[in-house]
Design goal:
It holds the Pfam family ACT_ACR9_3rd. The protein contains 41 helices and 16 strands. The chain is of the alpha+beta class and 929 residues long. Helix 12 crosses helix 14 and helix 14 crosses helix 18.
């Protein structure tokens, strides 16, 4: 490794300054001298790192920065070693055993270090440790530790290194990257020679298999996708460690010492080597900046760091994309490049060195070549069950083959030969306007997108090679695009591909227990092609200044005819894209017991076919957002909305008068309680207002009846009960308590203190002044017993809060501070007051940045405003929360006065933003008729 062009430290001056601190008598160092020496070294290290950060900001060269920091570390170690052997532990006539070489290993052995990297050292001995060697090593290590460095170290003889390298792949890799630092150089030369002859020789396939398996395990631990929106720069898929793995394998297998030698070995072309270097340089720049910014070895680009990193690296905002989103898009494009280079490298290994090595065969699918023809094609062949090209000019002679190869792979369920994918990537220039308008190419592509097999797998290969973005330019615009949001776990293109995969999963009848309705209705969908195309395009307009649903529908109207869809199919695709968020939004943030909600939603659906397609698309879309985003509660809400809407769009509903429906509900409840004494039964049925009778299903009414009856018998005016709803992934806590204007607010506050996330609330009052509130909280434990125990504790906390023994405001205030990743986000607060969404209620929708105790604050203000809450619906989308309340005034009518609506908006916005407002006198909550 060459010395960096801009050094950070004057080695000679530092050595002279250290020597000046030595006493007249060699062999000892006073405490004062050691303190002075430590201060000198610390200042040199601090100055050097500050200079490295300045140079990085000025020239942006990440690899150079890593080399400069490594050189700085080299100098410190050399100076400390020289001082130790000259002034502390001098030996006039050293024996053959009193020799020591200091060797850099691991990443430090490559001559690159990040500011927070570990310093990995091997103290190399000729054959055994001596008191002199032990003392020198101890002196060096203690000084390095006192400098605040994380030092990984081992003290071994050459023979020990060879023996351990044979059995331990981690030690073998460390020795592979060993670099002489200082001391007895012949010792290191001996290690290199013996390692090459006694360890490396003949073991290339074994090493490759181990490193690739190790890489796969690392990817699994970090998250299998390279498009996670909070990537690990070092260990994540597409990160620095992937590049290092390539170099380890190259150095071991080809016995080269530099990236440049990979060109001579025929592994990479000159252009591909330049790509390797650009990727490495960018990733090193990001990693070094990350360490400088956090002052620690932080490897994950979390949301709270991405904004500052974008500024440090000089990114600016563009229309539709924030500066941080442009930075992260560049990051993911680099991660994709790393994947391309890995594929090219593995292809070269297979082509030239794969035949004799069984271990490598298992990982890369190598072995004796078995070739056969593909029916109906002369341009492609099957080689070892993988599709490959039959000649060198397959794509140049017919560019449609750039689509056909993927179509054939899907049709015959074939993997791709690495050479074929490499040739595809090198032929992207052939994808031009003529190919995009080619009827055959578009027909083949449509069949790929709507394949009955595994369209996600083939589309992912098209995306990795760059074909997808070139053939569908609008898709190319969202490749590697991230959305700066905690809700979205993947880049836009990754989300679209995953949504196709989940759609195919539903069609194949998989995971029916998680989404039974979607699996049930899919076979009845008349035009599955329309659904797949809509799924593929639903987020294709992300990153534009306008609403992506509207812009996406416009793209669909332009693109679908090109793909061969009819005008009717095109219209349906565009409709699905334009409304792809409607079902999710309605289900999660509207009162599904409100008739107006269903009628308004049905008016948009227009037909049962569109309702079916939108349900399936919505399920796949939510599941593709990221792990844990889909849950049973969302599934239940979607099913309820579907079942309530289906009879409306099919014309099978009958509008029975409200009074008649109330009477029928009373009679039905009375019949269900037939084993109660008649007087008690009749009295209980009369305790409930019509709203309760119409909105609550019979099983829950029966459960409530038994719960209230037990409370009455125990003469308890305050009681709670819990029910774990496993399938919906929520737990329901029912509170029976004297009605109170702040009741829901107190319940929300207690849940906040308990760390319970409320997703829904149904509020009812009995005719005798008792409240019956049902709160649904997100499930925390898989085991019902554990969940029941946890929910019971929450219920107990609610009781304490209602009894006044729990001091809530102080505890909630402590939790209300935005912490961690939330600090990175800024979400505009919006408060909407709408009288058109319900015939009975005014609907208040409050949206903005989430925080602990928010629902408590909002419900307290609503109570202060003398409003009665009939139901509350809470939806969280990462850092953004949408809280919806169905309210009336205390007489049970809507809020129509403009000045009062303005006051509601003003007060709720202040509560959302945490700004003080004047308190209004709370009034008693009443149940609307």
């Amino acid at each position: 490794m060459s010395t960096p062009t801009a050094t950070l430290i004057d080695e000679k001056a530092l050595a002279e300054a250290m020597a000046s601190l030595a006493g007249d008598k060699p062999g000892s160092v006073s405490a004062d001298t050691r303190s002075e020496m430590l201060a000198l070294l610390k200042q040199a290290m601090t100055d050097g790192r500050e200079e490295a950060e300045k140079l990085l900001s000025a020239d942006g060269k990440g690899t150079q920065c890593a080399r400069r920091l490594s050189h700085l570390q080299d100098v410190l170690i050399r100076v400390i070693y020289d001082f130790a052997v000259a002034n502390v532990y001098p030996v006039d006539n050293p024996t053959s055993a009193e020799r020591l070489a200091i060797v850099a290993v691991g990443g430090y052995g490559r001559g690159t270090l990040a500011p927070g990297s570990d310093v990995d050292l091997l103290f190399l001995l000729p054959y055994k440790q001596t008191p002199w060697g032990e003392s020198v090593v101890e002196f060096i290590l203690y000084l390095l530790w006192d400098l605040g460095l994380k030092v990984g170290h081992a003290t071994r003889s050459v023979t020990e290194c060879i023996r351990l390298s044979r059995s331990d792949m981690t030690i073998r890799t460390a020795v592979l990257e060993s670099r002489y630092l200082w001391g007895d150089k012949p010792l290191h030369d001996e290690l290199v020679q013996r390692f090459d002859e006694e360890v490396v020789k003949g073991t290339g396939p074994e090493f490759i298999a181990a490193k690739l398996a190790e890489r796969d395990q690392r990817h699994k631990a970090q998250g299998a996708s390279r498009y996670l929106v909070e990537p690990n720069v070092k260990d994540g898929k597409g990160g620095l460690r992937d590049l290092h793995t390539l170099f380890w394998i190259a150095k071991y297998f080809y016995r080269v010492d530099s990236n440049e030698a990979l060109v001579k070995a025929g592994v990479f072309s000159r252009a591909e080597l330049n790509r390797f270097r650009k990727c490495e340089d960018f990733l090193w720049a990001v990693r070094c900046h990350l360490h400088f910014l956090t002052h620690r070895s932080d490897e994950r680009l979390t949301f709270d760091l991405q904004q500052e990193m974008a500024i440090r690296l000089g990114y600016t905002a563009h229309p539709g994309l924030k500066d941080v989103e442009r930075f992260m898009k560049h990051y993911f494009l680099v991660a994709k490049e790393v994947g391309d280079l890995t594929r090219i490298f593995c292809a070269e290994l297979e082509e030239h060195h794969g035949k004799p090595v069984p271990a490598l065969n298992r990982l890369l699918g190598l072995g004796r070549k078995r070739r056969r023809k593909i029916p109906g094609s002369t341009d492609f062949i099957i080689e070892n069950e993988r599709i490959s090209t039959a000649g060198e000019d397959v794509f140049a002679s017919d560019p449609v083959n750039l689509i056909r190869i993927f179509h054939l792979a899907d049709k015959y369920d074939l993997a791709f030969h690495p050479d074929a994918l490499q040739e595809v990537a090198r032929s992207l220039r052939l994808i031009d306007g003529a190919l995009r308008e080619n009827e055959v190419a578009n027909r083949l592509f449509l069949e790929i997108v709507s394949s009955r097999r595994q369209p996600e797998v083939v589309l992912r290969a098209m995306n990795e090679t760059g074909v997808l973005g070139r053939f569908i330019p609008d898709f190319g615009k969202v490749v590697a695009m991230m959305q700066f949001s905690m809700y979205h776990h993947y880049t836009v293109d990754e989300h679209l591909l995953r949504s196709i995969g989940f759609l195919a999963e539903i069609e194949h009848g998989e995971a029916a227990d998680a989404h039974p309705l979607a699996n049930e209705i899919f076979p009845g969908i008349k035009d599955r092609v329309v659904l797949y195309v809509a799924m593929f395009l639903h987020d294709i307009a992300k990153g534009r200044p306008e609403d992506h649903s509207i812009a996406g529908a416009r793209i669909a109207r332009r693109l679908c005819p090109r793909l061969g869809l009819t005008p009717a199919q095109t219209d349906t695709v565009a409709w699905l894209i334009e409304h792809h968020l409607l079902m999710s939004m309605t289900a999660q943030s509207r009162d599904l017991n409100d008739r107006k909600t269903i009628l308004d939603f049905a008016a948009v659906m227009q037909s049962l076919e569109r309702l079916k397609m939108l349900l399936v698309l919505t399920v796949a879309d939510i599941k593709a957002v990221g792990p844990g985003v889909w849950n049973g509660w969302k599934g239940q809400l979607l099913r309820t909305l579907y079942y309530e809407t289906e009879p409306v769009v099919t014309g099978g509903h009958s509008q029975v008068s409200r009074n008649k429906r109330v009477a029928e509900a009373r009679e039905q409840l009375g019949e269900a309680l037939a084993d109660w004494p008649k007087r008690e039964r009749d009295a209980y049925v009369k305790r409930h207002y019509p709203a309760y009778l119409l909105r609550v299903d019979l099983p829950r009414k029966i459960a409530h009846a038994e719960f209230i009856r037990d409370a009455d018998k125990a003469k308890k005016s305050l009681a709670t009960t819990v029910r774990a709803r496993d399938f919906e992934a929520v737990t329901e806590i029912t509170v029976f308590a004297p009605d109170h204007p702040r009741l829901l607010s107190i319940i929300a506050g207690a849940c906040s203190i308990a760390g319970a996330n409320i997703v829904d609330a149904q509020i009812y009052t009995t005719t005798d002044g008792q409240a019956l509130d049902s709160i649904s909280i997100s499930r925390e434990f898989d085991d019902d017993v554990d969940e029941q125990r946890r929910a019971a504790k929450v219920g107990k906390l609610i009781e304490e809060a209602l009894e006044g023994t729990l001091r809530m405001p102080e505890q909630i205030d402590r939790k209300a501070q935005r912490k961690g990743r939330l600090k990175a986000f800024s979400v505009e607060t919006t408060i909407a007051v709408d009288n058109d969404l319900s015939n009975q209620y005014t609907v208040i929708e409050a949206a903005g940045i989430d925080r602990a105790g928010l629902l408590f604050s909002l419900t307290r203000v609503i109570s202060d405003l003398n409003l009665n809450i009939a139901s509350a619906h809470v939806s969280t989308f990462g850092e953004r929360v949408v809280d919806v309340f169905y309210v009336t005034d205390l007489t049970g009518i809507k809020i129509t006065n403009a000045s009062r609506q303005a006051a509601i908006r003003r007060r709720l916005k202040a509560a959302f933003d945490g700004t003080p407002v004047d308190e209004a006198r709370p009034a008693r909550r009443m149940e609307p008729a």
